[in-house]
Design a protein that fits this description.
The structure is a homodimer.
Chain A (H helix, E strand, L loop, with lengths): L7 E2 L2 E2 L6 E5 L6 E7 L3 H18 L4 H17 L1 H12 L3 H24 L6 E3 L13 E7 L3 E4 L13 H9 L3 E4 L5 H17 L7 E4 L5 H8 L5 E5 L2 H13 L6 E4 L5 E4 L1 H20 L11 E5 L4 H14 L8 H16 L5 E4 L14 E6 H6 L11 E7 L2 H10 L3 E7 L2 H6 L1 H7 L3 E6 L38 E7 L20 E3 L2 E3 L5
Parallel strand pairs in A: 5-20, 7-8, 7-10, 8-9, 10-11, 12-13, 12-17, 13-16, 15-16, 17-18
Antiparallel strand pairs in A: 1-2, 1-9, 3-4, 5-6, 6-19, 14-15, 20-21
Helix pairs in contact in A: 2-4, 2-6, 3-4, 3-6, 4-5, 9-10, 13-15
Chain lengths: 531, 531
């Protein structure tokens, strides 16, 4: 497929405009063809209007029809897998095996949501039947279920060109719930975005859905995204990226005359607690696995373990030796964009100058050093320096981590109490460690969306029980997740029917339970009819 | 019980301060003893600190313990029912039978949430079991459930001194979910608030819970409420009241360094569509029931039907005659506060002067006219005047409604498309009307939280399927309800455990399913164990 460089607005292509931008190879710094055209404000209007027009029909297609649509998108993506992976590799420098697995994950997400909407119980129907004889007044018949919100805006993320971008988790869950989606492509991988956009458009066409179900808008800057979040016809928005950008879009969403739900997944440092028993029994293994986790994907994961608390002990040396050796021997990954690489080196340089750092190990500079390469960094400090310098606790995006040595348990409890919100916290320990640190777990439960035991936070499983979210600033809304099937609840609201005749109710709420789904009938979960 | 006029901060009473205010009798305008003392900023700090300290313990008591606590509160309220109803009548002028039924509803709400937390499935556990043999990488074990957010601030509402105030729906759902609650009492019924506050305090004491589980703060103005919403230890807030006050608190909540969920239930005009078949077959009955609904409680319900669309037809006359007669013969209710009464008369006077009103019927002025009495008002206009004057669509709080005559169906579709968010929409019609107006229903489904067929929106059933909420400005968050058991989802977030040993998991997530609750295990709803 030939890339056009134009936005996809329903079945129409965007017009070529004056504002043109390119993708750049992170490895060579060279521009990649073709030029991409930023969308115009008229194109934003058109996309919003088409989405609004598509909503009534799309929100009411059956679960099976939506499932078929989501599966068609997955198949269309797989059809262009080779071109997609090659282009994504060009635009991101992420290794091809990683991109292949990200593609599989993206299609897996679409199929997971397909299975959820096909089954149908996600609409959470509740039925309270009438009681004409109730005193002092008769009880009406009340039935509610979840319904989609309306057009949803999704922002593509730089660090996951597939799984958190055009057909990523937010798009999948918004479409699954019955909402049209307008994606604002991330400008760092526009070609990848266009290819995926065509796959979704093909899905819309093959399934005979209204064209407004999907649009993809390009923009070299922020004005199109800002306009989308403020558009009166847009009913919710989801973003994955930096704290500054996420907060600024959140502020727009909540300052509207009619505020809309906004899901920003932003900054997380993902503290890891290496408890004494674990370090004693398997320090070298942990060093090796931790190194793999914080350097995975160039450390450009929102779940990268960026803070590692470890207790001073004679057993620590083996762990430290292996970890420092790994870092010293590491080659320098190529980061996604020049902006990310330079911010990484700026913070690294700043931290290197800090007097309270008592050790710094850096990886090798590459032999063929490209413009975006960044040396791996292991910073080490002690607990008092950490507590005295709050900036050390903030996210450092890229292949680094900060090791903090502590002497007594109370010190990590104090650190845990002082944490802001994070996506994850990780405990490495023995069963005894876990029992002895129940108080630490109790604190972490109030700070994060997911607690990992004897694993690593990177590698976010796409399943029903995943929570990828957490208290601010990990996200702007801790009540949801951006990964896993629970994310379908982001883009819905409950709607109640009072005393409606059976024929006029949506199938989910009809007496006969024609869809055979789980419902809460008079307070009991049943799959039976409510006749 | 003797009223003290002091805030209740845990088990301590607020200090007497310089800022003193009184309740006023809406009937006579006279001050009612005792004086009430506004809370100080130090008392806000203390309440927040105690709530934060209570959270770890309170959030982890069992469902049975919480149920017992909620039932104890209900019993404590019933113990002082006579004094409570008498005081509420003094402070609000609402009739005693209404207050008795509101008290029963308030206790019913507490008991409904008690049954929900006792049963336990509301925590929505999800379990995805590990698969060590999965390729290319082993699948971890992931388990999530809902957990409480932390201290919640609840604002008492003027129009429901019991059911939407100190121990109202928001307090019940926040406590049920495991959150400490700080209530800001509404200054129009401080004595009622204090009595209920003591009932909750007694519940905390009898159930041996930490004192910070509950606080009640008085304030004559807005500063304590604003401070509470901005307090770093407060994790969510809920408000029922005017659009201006609700939006201003919402703006504070989302402008915090760490934004928090804010649930404002605000303005709703609750459109009613009287379809032709209904008017033809039972016009007089509808007139009489509609009159009862819009004048119920002095028209001071958020669900008051304030817009009534009716088609021009020869059959309309009987309906109109009865409705006008009812209004003409009505005596004037006493409204809750001088502010509400004067705003009601101001808008009434403004509407009376509008040239596009083609009929105005007013109720009788009372013989013993008090300061807050307000004559019932029936405004009538036609569809073109309505569409030309957007202010007619806004909420007019008090005993009035606006009747809008239309000629052809397309006109109400246009009106429906132009509606902002409302709590409810109501259809009066025959089964044929409903079928012929399926397009109207489709539009209303996108505008409201609840659609009523052949009933009236006032009288909000407290049950599992109720949705009392809706798109902005009906609420600041359409994703939830403020009435019914679904409201427990307001004050929670999902938390996930990865690869935790069984002993270290909360009981809801343990293999054996010791609580016997419904769980989504590997994508299937089951009540069995997951061993």
């Amino acid at each position: 497929m030939q890339l056009s460089g134009k936005s996809l607005i329903g079945f129409r292509d965007g017009a070529p405009g004056n504002d043109v931008f390119h993708a750049f190879s992170p490895s060579s710094g060279e521009m990649i063809a073709p030029p991409f055209h930023s969308a115009s404000t008229q194109e934003v209007e058109l996309a919003a209007k088409l989405a609004d027009e598509a909503f009534p029909a799309y929100s009411r297609i059956t679960g099976s029809e939506k499932a078929s649509f989501l599966r068609t998108i997955a198949a269309e993506i797989e059809r262009v897998a080779d071109q997609l992976v090659a282009r994504a590799h060009q635009e991101t420098a992420l290794p091809e095996p990683r991109l292949r697995s990200e593609l599989a994950r993206t299609c897996g997400q679409l199929r997971l949501f397909a299975s959820v909407v096909e089954e149908g119980s996600w609409t959470a129907p509740r039925i309270d039947r009438a009681d004409a004889n109730r005193k002092p007044i008769a009880k009406p018949d009340l039935r509610c279920k979840l319904v989609p919100l309306g057009p949803v805006v999704v922002f593509g993320a730089s660090n996951f060109p597939l799984a958190f971008s055009v057909a990523g988790g937010d798009t999948a869950s918004a479409l699954a719930a019955g909402n049209p989606v307008i994606v604002k492509a991330h400008p760092a991988h526009p070609g990848t975005s266009e290819l995926v956009g065509h796959a979704i458009r093909a899905g819309v066409q093959k399934c005979n859905l209204p064209e407004g179900v999907f649009a993809l808008l390009f923009d070299s800057g922020t004005s199109i995204g800002r306009r989308l979040v403020q558009h009166p016809l847009v009913k919710a928005a989801a973003f994955t990226g930096s704290l500054a950008a996420g907060r600024s879009l959140f502020d727009l969403a909540v300052s509207r005359p009619d505020p809309i739900p906004f899901y920003g997944e932003m900054a997380s440092t993902n503290p890891v607690f290496l408890l004494p028993g674990a370090v004693t029994t398997r320090g070298e293994k942990i060093a090796s696995d931790l190194y793999a986790s914080f350097t995975l994907g160039g450390g450009q994961f929102c779940t990268k373990p960026g803070l590692v608390f470890v207790r001073e002990s004679p057993h620590l040396q083996d762990f430290l030796t292996v970890l420092r050796e790994k870092v010293s021997a590491s080659s320098s990954p190529t980061l996604l964009t020049r902006g990310i690489a330079s911010a990484y080196e700026q913070v690294s340089a700043h931290r290197s100058r800090e007097v309270h750092l008592d050790s710094l190990t850096r990886g090798k500079s590459s032999e063929s050093k490209g413009p975006n390469t960044a040396a791996v960094a292991l910073f080490e400090t002690d607990i008092s320096a950490f507590l005295a310098n709050p900036s050390l606790a903030s996210e450092h995006f890229g292949p680094s981590t900060l090791l903090i040595r502590y002497a007594v348990k109370e010190q990590i409890l104090e650190c845990a109490r002082g944490l802001v919100g994070h996506l994850t916290a990780t405990i490495q320990g023995t069963a005894e460690d876990l029992q002895e640190h129940a108080d630490l777990i109790r604190i972490l439960e109030t700070k994060v969306g997911r607690i990992v035991f004897n694993g690593y936070p990177t590698g976010v499983e796409v399943c029903h029980a995943m929570v990828h979210g957490g208290p601010y600033p990990a996200s702007t809304d801790p009540r949801t997740t951006s990964v896993g099937s629970l994310a379908i609840l982001r883009f819905v609201r409950p709607l109640c029917y009072q005393d409606f005749p059976n024929f006029a109710l949506p199938p989910e709420l009809q007496n006969e339970n024609p869809l055979g789904i789980w419902r809460l009938v008079d307070g009991e979960y049943v799959r039976a009819s409510a006749c």
